[in-house]
Design brief:
The structure holds two protein chains of two kinds. Chain A is mainly alpha-helical. Chain A is built from nine helices and no strands. In chain A, helix 3 crosses helix 4 and helix 7 crosses helix 9. About 5% of the residues of chain A have low confidence. By secondary structure, chain B is of the alpha+beta class. A five-stranded mixed β-sheet of chain B has the order 2-3-5-1-4. In chain B, helix 3 crosses helix 4. The two termini of chain B are about 50 Å apart. The chains are: A mainly alpha, B alpha+beta. At the A-B interface, helix 2, helix 3, helix 4, helix 5 and helix 6 of A face helix 2, helix 4, helix 5, helix 9 and helix 10 of B.
Chain lengths: ~190, ~250
């Protein structure tokens, strides 16, 4: 489905077509779910958060000026929700019992194993999620938008409202930082 | 002469095929000659492959029904959630209240101790200076219709939306909220509507609403977790005010 089709759905929703909303949810739910699941790490929280994002989108659709930019608008909304939820959970110590994101206490490697094999064998997805969650907000969001959501540099620039050059430099910094963090978590050696 | 760090700085551009042909050849030649950078490149691509693998996780089947459930019961769901232990008055509101209380105590101290020495014109000037932040300039009161409530019947309101001209210049309570993103106003609007409050957006950064003193706790909930400054400070005291049935609140994002 292209941008034009999405805009048509948004227009239909504005005219009261509830099915158009269902279609929009089905279209974006996997992406929003992946974003929230990686951002807050917990499935229940991610489910609640994803639902809240779509509820807000439904109720705030009047604020969307350009129907062709629904995707970018939804991502902005989603990131705002993610940031607020993450902050609230962090204040409550929600992440304090997750030790995998602590680079000072790496998972030990068995003899003769390599980080590559280790990453493939053990709860890799959880480790990657934890490593991403522990990143600074801006780096984390750029990484998620590019490598999880597959947005182009231009789309990321529009969603985060930062220049294209900044997107490129911060993305490289984020990717290198994630690599280093995973290395530490998985044994502390290359 | 480029060093290893310089080459590693180009990993993202190389991965995303953004490098010029010359730079690409240089990097490939370096990777072929430098075992350290070659290993870092392998880990770099492996890391990104693992991030990409997260994409394969499918959303739960009950996501859409859950959304409909929330849309059908806007206020109730959040109230139940709050009752189930989600009360979390962050530091911001108590901290703001404490700050205002200290400021009032300091102000009272200076007023009590310095007023006799300042001469007749000083109190009037002081009063004018204090009043300045509470006055909303006319230019900011241009009504901007909020389409959200009109378009979506789920946004039920306990109180009717306030007309732009009504009590616009004389709010009983003035709240400044620190905004972090352009979406804070719609999010705040949503938080209020979920609590059956009916804010009226009068500009891209100002909203107003009318509520009874009994509804003040709902307003506090809606502002939970945000950095706010409230005037008058007595607003945060339960039971405020005793002499009015309906309060006009102006909220400005800053």
């Amino acid at each position: 489905m292209n941008e034009h089709d999405v805009a048509s759905l948004v227009r239909a929703l504005r005219q009261g077509d509830e099915q158009a909303f269902n279609q929009l949810v089905r279209l974006y739910q996997a992406r929003i779910w992946n974003l929230t699941r990686t951002y807050v790490k917990d499935e229940e929280e991610a489910r609640d958060l994803s639902q809240d994002i779509f509820v807000t989108a439904y109720r705030s659709l009047g604020h969307l000026r350009d129907e062709n930019k629904f995707g970018a608008w939804l991502y902005q909304l989603a990131l705002n929700h993610c940031r607020n939820r993450y902050k609230r959970l962090k204040r409550r110590g929600f992440f304090s019992n997750l030790s995998l994101d602590d680079p000072d206490h790496p998972i030990s490697l068995s003899q003769g194993d390599t980080p590559e094999h280790q990453m493939e064998r053990r709860g890799v997805q959880e480790a990657v999620r934890n490593a991403i969650a522990a990143m600074p907000e801006t780096e984390k969001e750029i990484l998620l938008l590019r490598d999880l959501q597959e947005l182009s540099y231009e789309e990321i620039s529009a969603v985060l409202n930062i220049p294209l050059g900044t997107v490129k430099s911060k993305l490289n910094r984020a990717r290198l930082a994630l690599k280093e963090r995973l290395k530490k978590m998985l044994g502390g050696r290359p | 002469m480029m060093e290893c760090n310089d080459y590693q700085g180009k990993f993202t551009a190389y991965r995303d095929q953004e490098l010029a042909a010359v730079e690409q050849r240089q990097l490939e030649a370096h990777l072929a000659a430098c075992p350290h950078c070659a290993k870092e490149w392998r880990l770099f691509t492996l890391t990104l492959d693992h991030v990409a693998a997260l994409r394969q996780v499918q959303p739960p089947a009950d996501l859409l029904p859950g959304i409909h459930a929330k849309l059908g019961q806007p206020g109730l769901w959040f109230r139940l959630r709050d009752l189930c232990g989600h009360f979390d008055f962050s530091m911001s509101l108590p901290a703001a209240a404490a700050t205002v209380a200290v400021a009032m105590a300091v102000g009272l101290f200076f007023k009590t101790n310095l007023q006799p020495m300042t001469g007749s014109s000083q109190p009037a000037q002081l009063a004018t200076r204090r009043a300045t932040p509470l006055v909303i300039p006319d230019s900011r009161l241009t009504a901007v219709t909020s389409h959200a409530t009109a378009s979506f019947p789920q946004a039920r309101a306990a109180h009717p939306p306030m007309a732009p001209e009504m009590d616009a210049l004389h709010p009983d309570i003035f709240i400044t909220v620190r905004a972090e993103t352009p979406h804070d106003l719609p999010l705040l609007q949503q938080a209020m509507e979920e609590r059956h409050l009916a804010p009226y957006i009068t500009s891209p950064y100002v909203m107003r609403l009318r509520l009874t003193p009994d509804d003040l706790p709902l307003l506090r909930e809606a502002l939970d977790g945000r950095q706010v400054v409230v005037f008058p400070p007595e607003t945060v005291i339960p039971g405020y005010p005793h002499h009015k049935d309906l309060l006009v609140v102006a909220i400005r994002l800053q």
